[in-house]
Specification:
The protein is α/β, with parallel strands linked by helices. The chain has a domain at 13-106: Beta Barrel (Elongation Factor Tu (Ef-tu), domain 3), CATH 2.40.30. It is 19% helix and 31% strand. The protein contains six helices and 16 strands. The chain has a seven-stranded antiparallel beta sheet with strand order 4-3-7-1-2-6-5. A seven-stranded mixed beta sheet has the order 11-10-9-8-12-13-16, with helices on both faces. Strands 14-15 form a two-stranded antiparallel sheet. α3 (154-157) links the parallel β9 (146-151) and β10. The protein is globular.
Length: 269
Amino acid sequence: MSDGRRLAPFGRRRLEVTASARIGAYRLLRVADPDGPVPDPGQFCMLAAVERWGGGEDDRPFLPRAFSVLRARDGELAFLLEDVGPGTARLAELRAGDGLWVTGPLGVGWSPPAAGRRPVLCGGGVGIPPLAIWQDALRAAGVAHVALVGFRGAAHAEAATLLDGPRVATDDGSAGHAGPVTDLLAAELEAGAPAVVYACGPPGMLEAVRALCAARETPAQLALESPMACGYGACFGCVVAVRDGGYVRVCVDGPVLDAARLAPGAIGA
């Protein structure tokens, strides 16, 4: 469990998809990477299909898409994706044996909890992957923790099985608690010992987590989701405002950032 950045090989690697499976409303993609660096929990990779990665033969290719690593085991990487546009639709079509360009792991991952604080993991939707790999690391280190996950409905909530023993919330009440996952988080922070929150999810959820933790003076680390063009910090397309009036780049200064460092309302702005 490192709070530093693991340097990825320069450039992209051509890897092979080993499996593709539907998990409720999402797709789980597994990729063979026996010689690549092991990612730190919370890091991400840039993915692009080797074939048919673009609008057509005469069109420009799509930009690669950023995905947090869900798991890294036995020389294999796992990613969770949702078909929400042309790029993710193409990735969702990949099957075992297909080629995938992978750049990474990139960025800064989670930092270990301070002494005396218990980790509370809080995820929303397709934002759960960095929490799954973090949970693996916490369990391996013997660190007790709580996992809370929220989804739109029961079909999306099937992805909760990718974590160990999480408490589930759904917006429509079709599985678990009826309401946002921040309801579960508020109750957990009120009931338990001093905590540190690790969260990833859509911008609205992360802003609610930031505000909730700030009001309770609870430290929090947020893995931000942002469209990225390069992953190396060159394009400045994924900046987010911080309290000192400046900006940080999600791809190289994050994606995991200290919640107290962020300007209120900056997430998703």
